[in-house]
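sry for the spam today, last one i promise. struct tokens for design, 675 residues
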């Protein structure tokens, strides 16, 4: 996984420790590096990417058919939300319909759809490209002479799938490009730039207790392969204490093992003293995994040591399992049976073991792959623990809006790094790490309304002529013909907090209004339409309004929702963030608040209801307002999106729909929207 290689490829540098990211749509900088590297090494006409075909699955097929028959798209959405994630066949669909009246009625009303559905399920739907598989052809002929190919997204792609290419005898390689390795290179450069000795990420100690504490706390933000919400919850439960636990996590948090409850059994054996229950003869082979078959390599050992196969034959079984070729596995049954029976295993016991092995084949994962992922994840966490400033600077630079929320939430929990709003003398274009302050400054280029060219001008002037000494000094240095710093630039900088440190505002963000008034007087700014001017009609005497404005401009603001709740009359006990994150099987009642990220109104037989997603200092929560309560709050909620909502309500874990904590606004609730 971690490739030590520096190579110039057609003008692009593959830095140490990197091959680029797995890119599911085969576009972008990273995929181009992989393509260029393979072509440079083997020849432009001797390699091609492997084509795949996406097929019609249950939910997508139902929506497509509903659209063809002129159905109600909103109803199709509702019906598919009822269908379980594991439901894949028409039989699964009808079983679900037995206990779901809405789905049952839909099937009756749209019987034509379900007459044709079996004909299209699992049929090819669209052409795609395998995220990492590439074919290397012999030099005798070009790729297009060896197999049918097509051109897609600028790449030569095989019309045959991976299995067909294997069967034809071609050399297929999975060329993984891992963006995390690009990030490692950036982090190491930052560490060195900050005057510290950079660690050797290929020889880190694997017993760092603080690293495992981070995993146990669920502080997995931007940790390779271990940062998803599902795995984060699992590492909290697992409390990993060694690298083997992380290797098992990568392999076990997948649909097959989870359907069989292996992830829960592993935790119970590790943390609760539950006794392992290995299959016959497998005590030693599964001693590291508490009696559970988790890896393909374990099946190889079973086939060799208990089934009497050679290593080559055992590897053939593993390969068949990896490709889920059950027919190829079945042909080994009689030989494996002989081996088991010769060692004293009963016939009926062997049949049970064989069935378990076939079930395992549906979801098997190889340990070598899992180990590489886990080690890369461990390196990620190690760098975060020991070099948080550099780690988070890079992570935030790479992050999209969704991940930024999660990363900021973790940063504020760990308190290892301070995140500062944009600063006129401290910020760069993007995230700027200040080692002496242990602080990351938000980039000037991230402020809404300030383009990269404008930010670049501000930074260039500062570098050439020194820090800005005052607001007037800043204004004078950018008051020239053709300057990209306009009226809206000044006001956006002030409202986002870029002048707070220069003037010592501290936490008194309301003082930004004084600076805006000074600027307007200094520049003789005329407000042509006061009724639409935010700094005229806004609640500029309220701290929350300025934080809302900062959040609107930059996406960054820590809000004292409890203080605001008291201010607007929410008298019920306020639920702290730590308590709100816990799974509450029984509803608790209290006050809460957040920034409205999404707001949708729906209709049911009982009338209108609303669902919303709110962000409470970078943690997301779902809120439901059923029809009885919605009637009381409809006017207040109109236009609530991108504003603050404060309320009292019931908090309860919802395992079915949100799979997380959900707030419910009741008729007894108090609610206030700040816009």
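last one done:
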């Amino acid at each position: 996984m971690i490739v030590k290689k520096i190579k110039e490829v057609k003008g692009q540098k593959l830095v140490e420790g990197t091959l680029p990211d797995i890119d599911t749509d085969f576009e972008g900088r990273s995929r181009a590096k992989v393509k260029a590297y393979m072509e440079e090494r083997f020849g432009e006409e001797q390699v091609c990417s492997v084509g795949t075909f996406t097929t019609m699955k249950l939910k997508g097929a139902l929506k497509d058919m509903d659209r063809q028959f002129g159905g109600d798209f909103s109803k199709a959405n509702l019906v598919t939300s009822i269908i379980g994630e594991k439901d894949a066949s028409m039989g699964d669909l009808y079983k679900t319909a037995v206990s779901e009246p809405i789905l049952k009625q839909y099937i009756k009303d749209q019987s034509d759809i379900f007459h044709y559905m079996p004909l299209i399920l699992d049929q090819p739907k669209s052409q795609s490209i395998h995220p990492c598989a590439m074919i290397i052809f012999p030099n005798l002929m070009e790729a297009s002479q060896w197999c049918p190919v097509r051109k897609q997204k600028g790449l030569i792609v095989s019309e045959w799938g991976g299995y067909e290419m294997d069967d034809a005898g071609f050399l297929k390689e999975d060329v993984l490009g891992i963006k995390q390795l690009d990030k490692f290179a950036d982090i190491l450069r930052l560490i060195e730039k900050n005057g510290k000795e950079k660690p050797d990420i290929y020889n880190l100690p694997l017993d760092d207790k603080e690293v495992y504490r981070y995993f146990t706390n669920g502080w997995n933000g931007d940790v390779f392969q271990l940062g998803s919400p599902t795995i984060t919850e699992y590492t909290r439960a697992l409390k990993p204490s060694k690298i083997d636990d992380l290797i098992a996590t990568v392999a076990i948090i997948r649909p097959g093992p989870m359907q069989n409850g292996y992830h829960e059994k592993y935790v119970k054996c590790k943390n609760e003293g539950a006794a392992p229950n290995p299959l016959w003869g497998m005590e030693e082979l599964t001693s590291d995994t508490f009696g559970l078959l988790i890896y393909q390599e374990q099946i190889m050992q079973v086939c060799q040591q208990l089934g009497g196969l050679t290593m080559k034959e055992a590897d053939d079984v593993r390969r068949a399992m990896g490709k889920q070729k059950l027919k190829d596995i079945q042909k080994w049954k009689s030989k494996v049976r002989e081996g088991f029976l010769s060692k004293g295993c009963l016939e009926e016991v062997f049949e049970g073991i064989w069935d378990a092995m076939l079930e395992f084949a549906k979801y098997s994962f190889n340990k070598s792959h899992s180990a590489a992922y886990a080690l890369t994840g461990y390196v990620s966490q190690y760098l975060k623990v020991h070099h948080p400033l550099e780690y988070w600077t890079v992570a935030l630079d790479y992050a999209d809006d969704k991940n930024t929320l999660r990363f900021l939430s973790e940063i504020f929990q760990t308190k290892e790094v301070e995140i500062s709003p944009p600063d006129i003398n401290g910020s760069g274009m993007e995230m700027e790490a200040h080692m002496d302050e242990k602080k990351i400054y938000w980039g000037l280029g991230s402020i809404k309304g300030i383009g990269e060219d404008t930010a670049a001008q501000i930074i260039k002037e500062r570098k050439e002529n020194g820090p800005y000494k005052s607001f007037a000094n800043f204004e004078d240095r950018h008051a020239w013909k053709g300057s990209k710093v306009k009226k809206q630039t000044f006001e956006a900088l002030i409202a986002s907090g870029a002048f707070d440190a220069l003037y010592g505002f501290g936490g008194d963000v309301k003082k930004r209004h004084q600076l805006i008034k000074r600027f307007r007087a200094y520049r003789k700014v005329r407000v042509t339409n006061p009724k639409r001017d935010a700094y005229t009609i806004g609640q500029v005497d309220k701290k929350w309004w300025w934080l809302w404005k900062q959040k609107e401009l930059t996406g960054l603001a820590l809000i004292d929702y409890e203080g605001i709740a008291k201010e607007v009359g929410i008298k019920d006990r306020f639920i702290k963030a730590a308590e709100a994150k816990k799974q509450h099987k029984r509803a608790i009642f209290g006050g809460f608040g957040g920034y409205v990220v999404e707001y949708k109104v729906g209709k049911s037989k009982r009338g209108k209801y609303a669902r919303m997603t709110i962000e409470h200092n970078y943690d997301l929560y779902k809120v439901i307002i059923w029809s009885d309560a919605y009637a009381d709050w409809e006017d207040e909620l109109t236009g609530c999106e991108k504003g603050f909502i404060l309320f009292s309500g019931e908090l309860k874990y919802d395992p079915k729909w949100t799979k997380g904590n959900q707030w419910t606004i009741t008729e007894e609730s108090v609610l206030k929207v700040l816009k």
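DSSP finds 32 helices and 16 strands in the chain. ok im logging off now
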